[in-house]
Amino acid sequence: MIPRPALLLGLSGLLPFIWGVATLLSPALAQTTLDLIGPRFTGPYVLIAYGIVILGFMSGVLWGFAARGAETAWTGYALSVGPALWAFFFVGGGPTQALTALITGFVILLVIDLQFSRWGLTPHWWMPLRLILTSAVVLCLAAGLWLG
């Protein structure tokens, strides 16, 4: 079972992704957001910016897991920097390309999560949590592609 704090905080981390989609679905919400806090918190801008942040964050999480595995250390550390480097090198070139690169990055991240889990470096509840969160993130990013 996923610990309640991990689940609740993980789900709360979805809010910027959900907000981005909500501003694409509601022109009134998008306009209000523009008026109150600016364009970077609307539509594809928030999806892209927050997606980059989360890929970088997840690299740090994976680095911590890699530190637990002496026999897999080199491979684990190398894999752990992948999501951050992916975001740095491939997210750009306009919303369509950036959102596509982010979707790909989150799918790759899930594969890396699975490998760390197979090595026994993650808690037993890690993959169920990652499946929930990654599914929601990819759906939001795909909605950004479709609605944007």
TrEMBL record:
Signal peptide range: none
InterPro entries in the cross-refs: DUF3429
Keywords for this protein: Membrane, Transmembrane, Transmembrane helix
Sections of the chain in a coiled coil: none
Organism domain of life: Bacteria
Transmembrane intervals: 46-67, 74-92, 98-116, 128-147
Pfam families xrefs: DUF3429
Name of the molecule in the record: DUF3429 domain-containing protein
